[in-house]
């Protein structure tokens, strides 16, 4: 899957786009869906800036409100 990942706190320069980010397998009771697009919102921006006081988490891929092909 393609992913925009924040590797550290900072400006837009800390965002890395990975064309082949590993897709985690679904767990029990979960399904895997194909996402056509995902929006980046203010929560992603504030997280990137470090506003929530938490460490940068490269496993937290940016994007909300996914678009699923039908």
TrEMBL record:
It comes from the Bacteria. The keyword NADP applies. PANTHER family: QUINONE OXIDOREDUCTASE (PTHR44154). Gene3D superfamilies: Medium-chain alcohol dehydrogenases, catalytic domain. It comes from Candidatus Neomicrothrix parvicella RN1. InterPro entries: GroES-like_sf, Zinc-ADH_QOR/CCCR. Keywords: NADP. SUPFAM superfamilies: GroES-like. This is Uncharacterized protein.
């Amino acid at each position: 899957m393609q992913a925009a990942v924040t590797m550290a706190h900072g400006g837009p320069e800390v965002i890395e786009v990975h064309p082949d980010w590993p897709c985690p397998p679904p767990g029990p009771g979960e399904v895997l869906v194909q996402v056509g697009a995902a929006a980046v919102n203010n929560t992603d921006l504030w997280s990137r800036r470090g506003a929530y006081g938490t460490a940068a988490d490269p496993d937290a891929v940016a994007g909300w409100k996914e678009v699923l092909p039908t």
